[in-house]
Amino acid sequence: MTKGLIVPIDLAAKRKAADLTQEKFGELIGFSKYYVLRLEKGKLTTPLQVAVKCVNILGPIEFKDKETGSRYRLTKI
């Protein structure tokens, strides 16, 4: 059973396509540039609240479950 250890797969590409720096994107989601960098590199798992903020700003984002390898696309409904 998964514990929700998800990491974004395409966050950096989506952020760049939106013409946002890591610093500006961090401000929009309420975190530092360093936090965004670590999310993009898969060094941090993504809490659901943060994932939702990212999707609200960038649109659908693909995530990977670190435990199972399963992939998910989170979208706004």
UniProtKB/TrEMBL annotation:
Gene3D superfamilies: lambda repressor-like DNA-binding domains. GO terms for molecular function: DNA binding. It comes from the Bacteria. Pfam families: HTH_3. Residues 11-59 form the HTH cro/C1-type domain. This is Transcriptional regulator, XRE family. It comes from Desulfofarcimen acetoxidans (strain ATCC 49208 / DSM 771 / KCTC 5769 / VKM B-1644 / 5575). The lineage of its organism: Bacteria, Bacillati, Bacillota, Clostridia, Eubacteriales.
